[in-house]
Design goal:
Structural class: mainly alpha
Distance between the termini: 88 Å
Number of domains: 1
Oligomer: single chain
């Protein structure tokens, strides 16, 4: 009976230790997830900001290009034609 009691006590102690270890690991994982979530949110905000800046720049370049095409349509056609020929030649090789 004493051996049985000793085994039960040892098993209970081991189970308690395992439970405590799992709880501690869970806390660490929760902290890591919270940290990662915060970092990802900050990165997302940065990406959105830079994306908006990039779109604004692209719109500005498009506006300038549109004005140049309207001001110099023959030159714009010539540049587009040459660019197309160069691209086609590059694609053949």
């Amino acid at each position: 009976m004493k051996a049985e009691r000793t085994i039960k006590d040892a098993t209970a102690a081991a189970a308690s230790g395992i439970h405590n270890g799992v709880d501690a690991a869970e806390e660490h994982v929760d902290e890591a997830v919270d940290t990662l979530s915060a970092r990802l949110a900050a990165l997302e905000a940065q990406w959105r900001e830079h994306g908006e800046e990039l779109l604004a720049g692209a719109r500005e370049i498009g506006d300038v290009a549109g004005k140049q095409v309207r001001a110099h349509p023959v030159a714009a056609f010539g540049v587009a034609f040459l660019a197309g020929m160069i691209f086609a030649k590059m694609m053949r090789h």
